[in-house]
Protein 1
Amino acid sequence: MQTGDLIYIKPKSSSKDDEDYVGLIVHQEQVGSNHGGSTILYDVLLTETNEVITISDIYFEIWRVE
């Protein structure tokens, strides 16, 4: 995924099927080591609230809107 992509996000800990959100990636950054221990942080503009939040691929399922 890259900056400018429209995405769906859902908390991995959520058991609700309807708890997914739509957002726009405004910035992304890889943090951690490059030896399998890295993660990606995404700054996402949420469409429901017009707020920018930072999420990671550790705690959220993230997939692109096709």
Protein 2
Amino acid sequence: MISAEDISREIAPLSDEQRALVLDFARMLRERDELVLPEGPLEGRTYEAWRIRLESRSARVLNEQRRRQEAAGIAPDGAIARSEWPDDMAPSSKTSVTT
């Protein structure tokens, strides 16, 4: 098994950006391993702990996605303000989709 000292020695010559990428990758792997379905019967404390980890990660992922969408100026719920609709989509429009 690789120790923390081994990892520190290996990433020391990397740039700050490269170290950040390595650490982000390591976090992603740890989170992935925490979400693996437990072996054995899906009941009791083992199952409940797994379910809580899964729900917690799901909430974090959804909140992060919502934050990214809001930062990009996109409505997280997918709604588009009527003021941004083209004229032919206005309720008073006489257009049709019939071809």
Protein 3
Amino acid sequence: MTKCICIDDSNRPSKIPANKWVVEGVEYNIVYATYILPQRKIAVQLKEVNLDESCAPYEYFLAERFSFTDDQLIELMNLIIDCAYADDSVKKLINQNERATDSV
């Protein structure tokens, strides 16, 4: 996990209730980070705020809503790399499972 502080809680989408939105000045813990399209930006999932199915299509918060110390920024970069490897591994397992199911 990587700690961060929210610096921008503006422009909450109407699909996301206020109790599932970040608050400026509050510290959060990032548990997952990814690159999202079509925005082409880094986005994060937080331990403290769960954007569930009721918030669809929103799943993540843009990383630019948060502030990081230098050490936290390094942690975030490492988390992004770890998440990318995990995503790739999951995709490989799904493909492997699909091939195995197709051959049965």
Protein 4
Amino acid sequence: MGNSLLTANNIPVAGEYDIKNVHAMKILDSFGIGGSFTEFYTMDYDEDVILMGHDGPGHVEIAQEKPKLKPLSLYHGKQSQGLSIEMSVKNGPVTLLSVVQTKEQNFKLLVAEGKSVPGPILEIGNTNSRYSFPIPIKDFVEEWSNEGPAHHCAVGVGHISSTIKK
């Protein structure tokens, strides 16, 4: 909960010590579109959507509805207790951003635009959203993965890939 509150107040916090992703979150936040911590976790081929989310830190300022505070007895797949924020990203245009380390030890920004779409999600105390992209999800995941990102990325509301490229 604290990480989500900090993230929503322009102080992004890296989950799982993913420092590259906290940079991606800060870039999106600096453009005023959020910057929520997320990862790919399943694909629905019938509806051509990717479900993405994480157990924190969610950027509560970009939630579709009022976020829920949810006590958990299974926290990030481990037997323990914790308090989490459950939310979905606002429906509409989104930008994904990842800071990628290249084999030459340089960094590049990997950006994609899609849409957060309504539909069923896992109600497990995490940020969970459904995303569609201009190309089939199978092709999207393959093209995204071929660029070498870590498994986390940041998501913000709105399309700003041209601004990021500049």
